Amino acid sequence: MRKMSINILIYMILILNGNLFAASYDAYKIFLQGSFDYGARDIDNAITNYEKVIALDKNAFAVYKKLVWLYYDSGNTDKAFQIADKINDLDGNNPQTTIFLSEFYFFVNKLDISKQFCEKTIKLDPDNKTAMVHLAFYYYLDKKFKESIKYWNMLLQKRPDDAVGYLGLGMAQEGLAMYEAALKSYDQTIRIHSSRVISTYAYIAKAHIYETIGKADLVVKEYEKYMSAYPNSALALMCLGEYYYKTKNYTKAKDYFLKAKKYDRSNTLIVNSYLGNIYEQTGQFDNAIAEFEIIAATENKNISVLREIGRCYFILKKYSKAEKTFLKALDIAPLNNEILYLTAVNYIDWKKYNKAIEYLNKTIKLVPNSADAYFYLGFAYNENKDFENAEKALLKAIEINPDHSRAMNYLGYTYADKGIKLKESEKLIARAVALEPKNSIYLDSSGWLCYRQGKFDLAEKLLLEAVDGMKCHVIYDHLGDNYVALNKISQAWIAYSLSYDFKQDKNVKKKLNLVQAKMSQEELYKQMLLRSKDNYTRLLSFKTGFKVKLGSNPFSKNFLYIPFSYTQSSNVKIEFPATVVMGGISISIKNGKAKITPEAFKKEIPSAVSNFILQACDIFSDNFYKQFSDAKITRKGNSLIYSRENAKLTLNMDTALIESLSQNGMVVRILKYEDFCISKIPTKIKVISKNMNTKLFLEGTKISPIDDIENENKSSGSGKN
User: Fold this and answer.
1) Among 27, 363, 393, 449, which is least packed, fewest CB within 10 Å?
2) Residue 480 near residue 496 (C-beta atoms within 8 A)
3) pTM higher than 0.70
4) Main-chain phi, psi angles of 596, to 5 degrees
């Protein structure tokens, strides 16, 4: 019964498709069996049966079309191409056949052949829309944008509301920098609104054009239009994040990527990568590590991510964790010269010079012409008290790269420091300075060489020029030694003080005590004020927040939180919340003047807050220390008190840090400082207003760099400084 049903089915199909297999009833039975095999994904039996069909019927055209794909899917590409040739021989002047062959060759990445069949299709059928689209696309890939435009326009004449046509036209116009025309084409794409995918590309393409022509406001507006059309679109948020990242507006970039993560979990690894880079660029290395670790948990063999995690640990001086991360990367890729190099530099900063030498030698085996690897090798050997090998490595670095200024400077400085080969030292340092005349480290080397040669006046000039370009404990130490040689004791004291304030070096402290013993009391007190001023000018840009507790209750609450930020370019910004002033206000202080936003609330500020602002304006003015230059000075225990009129400044004798300031009936006492990079920041402050009978206690929270300030942390293993 089943066999009879199949025979009836075959008979019916033959009547409907007599032109296909009229030559052979048996051929069609085998064809049907091959189709069953194909449906069951039995590729081998399908090929066998289809081959039997064409053996019985050489003109079984439909079977050839099946076979071309079967052979390609099975990996027999040569046979697939032979069948394609056969199809062309059988029916090569039929536009349906030529477009079939075009699509086949496109799929197998034979684009030139695919294009030829498209062109043949257009000759056979000038209105063939599929061929038009393919040709427009091929010419676009070949960057023949004019030809691409021609075919897109041909398509749009036939189909004036084709969103794909306008999208392709816009892409080709953009390729020719016809930006106005491209924008109109993309607008048409969005107007037709055929699909979210096509509209999305049009919005992104428009934003890209605005970015290219430098219209930043329109870039943002376009993405906002996109988000209006498709609310909570993670892709739009990511595009905006990427735009702000490229323009180095890391604060906004971070905000958009965090929103994108919220709305779409499918692209979280991409978002994690961007966030990691943003945190790394803004010096928030712990946050960067957290983002990169999320990626590493999924992509545990991602060398690039492990490299960034290791770099962040290295910059944070968490050398053990950096080592662990780099070694994990080397387990995956033991011959990765970049990771080997970073591992070595980590060991140098860690002062594990034997390990550094081991990994630098591994690096050099893989990259024998790496001047930087030889430079660090020389540095490691020298720190390991092996000057003979250090000299060889440094000379090799200079041989590989005759303009390697760091190697020249370091070797020249080392000669000078050892008091040997001073002529060679002079030549090397002179070459380094000629390459980078403003480099403070090289100027310091030049000054130190002059000091070794007994040229103290010239050394003073060079060292002052060096310290003017970069505040550094080594340069200040050298300057102090040179001032001692010139018998300028007062200047030597301030140089040693500044060196010690940067880095609490015991040897510098001994020198400081020796010169201090030779100074008059009056001169010491005057210089202490200059040292205190340097503590302030050395502050890097930072942000924090103060938790405030009031001893009395002039305001609505006893506990407040006041965000605070300081930048070297614009000084201070303080945010007072609505619990202090209705609606909240922002106060910016620059050059001793305060700007209140919104200004309308200026009269509503309580007197205690006004006094606090006036005090802050005075402290952050350029004239703050000048007003105490002629003050009466007294010493009380380990404190120096500078008094004038209604103001009193108290400094710590050991550090020159401010202990307290009394002015206009208000006393500010700094109870605690915390280290921040190369400076110290007050984190516990007590403010007493005698006039208002008010006490405030301020406690600073976590200190961090301003987001848009470039990270200033650098490897300490790059030379003597």
Assistant:
1) 27
2) yes
3) no
4) -105, 130
Q: Do residues 366 and 340 lie in contact, with contact meaning Cβ atoms separated by under 8 Å?
A: yes
Over the Cα atoms of the chain, what is R_g?
A: 38
Cα–Cα distance measured from residue 666 to residue 616, given in angstroms and rounded to the nearest whole number: 11
CA–CA dist 431, 435 (Å, integer): 6
Count Cβ atoms within 10 A of the Cβ of residue 1 and give its class: 0-12 exposed, 13-18 middle, 19 or more buried: exposed
Both tokens of residue 720?
């003597």
User: Which residues, 6+ apart, have CB-to-CB distance to 301 below 8 Å?
Assistant: 332
588 φ/ψ angles, rounded to the nearest 5 degrees: -110, 135
Contacts of 543 (CB under 8 A, 6+ apart): 563, 564, 565, 566, 703, 704, 705, 706
Q: CA-CA distance, 282 to 248, in Å (whole number)?
A: 10
Say how far apart CA 239 and CA 223 lie, in whole Å.
8
Sign of the four-CA dihedral 159, 161, 167, 169: positive
Whether the pLDDT of residue 12 is over 50: the answer is no
| DSSP structure class, residue 558 | S
Helices in 213-302 by DSSP H: which ranges? 216-229, 234-246, 250-263, 268-281, 285-298
| 113's tokens | 């052949």
Three-point CA angle 640, 643, 646, nearest 5° = 145
Q: Rounded to the nearest 5°, which phi and psi values hold at 301? A: -115, 20
The answer to whether 467 and 476 are in contact (CB under 8 A) is yes
Give tens-digit pLDDT for 676-717: 776 788 888 888 877 667 777 888 888 777 654 333 333 333
CA angle 578, 580, 583 (to 5 degrees): 25
Taking the C-alpha atoms of 598, 600, 605 and 611 in order, what is their torsion angle to the nearest 10 degrees?
A: 80
Residue 38's pLDDT is: 57
Residues 6+ apart with CB under 8 A from 176: 145, 146, 149
Least confident of 76-80, 143-147, 355-359: 76-80
Residue type, 233: S
Q: What is the pLDDT of residues 437-459, one digit of tens each?
A: 999 999 999 999 999 999 999 99
Rounded to the nearest 10 degrees, the angle between the axes of helix 196-212 and helix 163-175 is 20
Q: What angle do CA 705, 706, 712 make, to 5 degrees?
A: 55
User: What's the token pair of residue 714?
Assistant: 């650098």
Q: Give the single-character DSSP code of 439.
A: -
Tokens 């430079």 found at: 375
Given a contact cutoff of 8 angstroms between Cβ atoms, the answer to whether 422 and 415 are in contact is yes
Write out pLDDT tens, residues 210-262.
Answer: 989 989 889 888 888 888 888 777 888 888 888 888 888 888 889 888 888 88
Residue 505 CA to its chain's centroid (Å): 34
Long-range contacts of 327-334 (CB under 8 A, 24+ apart): 329/303, 332/301, 332/303, 332/306, 333/303
Q: In 3-state terms, what secondary structure has residue 667? A: strand
List alpha helices for 517-640, DSSP H: 521-537, 607-619
Instruction: Give the side-chain half-sphere CA count within 13 A for 32.
Output: 16
Q: Report the DSSP pairing between strands 666-676 and 679-689.
A: antiparallel
Dihedral sign from CA coordinates of 157, 161, 165, 169: positive
The candidate with the shortest Cα–Cα distance to 175, out of 207, 138, 148, 215, is 148
At position 669, the amino acid (one-letter code) is: R
Whether residue 598 is preceded by a cis peptide bond, meaning omega within 30 degrees of 0, is yes
